[in-house]
């Protein structure tokens, strides 16, 4: 895909969306997501996925805390988005109280986390790319996953097991996403920096796809 196809004056939020569209489709087309949405995976696979998310959101949210006052990344850091506590409740429900002793990051998750941490340390605008890729996705397609998880494993609606997908403090997700996109449109970055953010965003999608691939391999389709 041509990632340089910006018409002058295209709002950055639109540019980001259009230049990552193919990567979004790629992530969505991963067999793990397909099997999850078709109800073809056990609760263990879902829990395993939730564990990987816990590593990613710990990294995102520790980084967010450190960048709260950063002029570029700071405006994106919003408490109502925080997911770590919700993931911990879900994991306690899915795995039991001792879950922390049993979880490990997949190699793809470890690489993803390392990159988020590196961006947070060295390049706040790169952190914005990771922030956008996860949180705007959770506010959008995440709801499809929640719905399917509730149906497949009988979790209480918007309750334990799927709390990660429930943004209690965001009453109007569409309005929140609009405001978020406005923030993207005014991000303090020149064209070259915006292109670098686009590239990092594409990379963020690739990290997600890589995690899905490894999860898929962990749960072979039985013959
Ligand atoms: C079950 C799989 C998924 C489904 C069904 C899905 C669906 C959607 C839908 C319908 C939208 C458009 C929402 C809108 O216009 O407001 C969207 C947006 C988005 N999704 Fe996904 N998605 C999925 C997986 C993912 C994954 C794995 C990621 C990356 C980690 C992701 C990242 C995003 C982002 C960043 C947006 C916002 C695009 C923008 O408006 O700028 N999605 N998704």
UniProtKB/TrEMBL annotation:
It comes from the Bacteria. Heme b binds at residues 17, 24, 132, 181. It holds the Pfam family Heme_oxygenase. Keywords: Heme, Iron, Metal-binding. GO terms for biological process: heme catabolic process; heme oxidation; response to oxidative stress. GO terms for molecular function: heme binding; heme oxygenase (decyclizing) activity; metal ion binding. SUPFAM superfamilies: Heme oxygenase-like. This is Biliverdin-producing heme oxygenase. The lineage of its organism: Bacteria, Bacillati, Actinomycetota, Actinomycetes, Kitasatosporales.
């Amino acid at each position: 895909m041509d990632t340089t196809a910006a018409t002058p004056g295209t709002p950055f939020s639109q540019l980001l969306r259009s230049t990552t569209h193919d990567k979004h489709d790629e992530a969505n087309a991963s067999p793990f997501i397909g099997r999850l949405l078709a109800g073809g995976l056990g609760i263990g696979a879902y829990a395993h996925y939730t564990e990987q998310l816990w590593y990613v959101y710990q990294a995102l949210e520790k980084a967010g805390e450190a960048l709260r006052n950063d002029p570029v990344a700071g405006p994106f850091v919003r408490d109502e988005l925080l997911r770590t506590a919700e993931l911990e409740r879900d994991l306690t429900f899915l795995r039991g109280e001792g879950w922390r002793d049993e979880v490990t990051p997949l190699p793809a998750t470890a690489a993803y986390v390392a990159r988020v941490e590196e961006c947070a340390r060295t390049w706040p605008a790169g952190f914005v790319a990771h922030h956008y890729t996860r949180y705007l996705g959770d506010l959008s397609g995440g709801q499809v996953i929640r719905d399917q998880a509730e149906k497949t494993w009988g979790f209480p609606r918007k309750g334990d097991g799927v709390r990660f997908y429930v943004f209690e403090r965001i009453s109007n997700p569409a309005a929140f996403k609009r405001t978020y996109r406005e923030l993207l449109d005014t991000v303090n970055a020149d064209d070259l920096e915006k292109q670098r953010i686009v590239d990092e965003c594409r990379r963020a999608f690739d990290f997600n796809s890589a995690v899905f691939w490894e999860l898929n391999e962990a749960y072979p389709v039985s013959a």
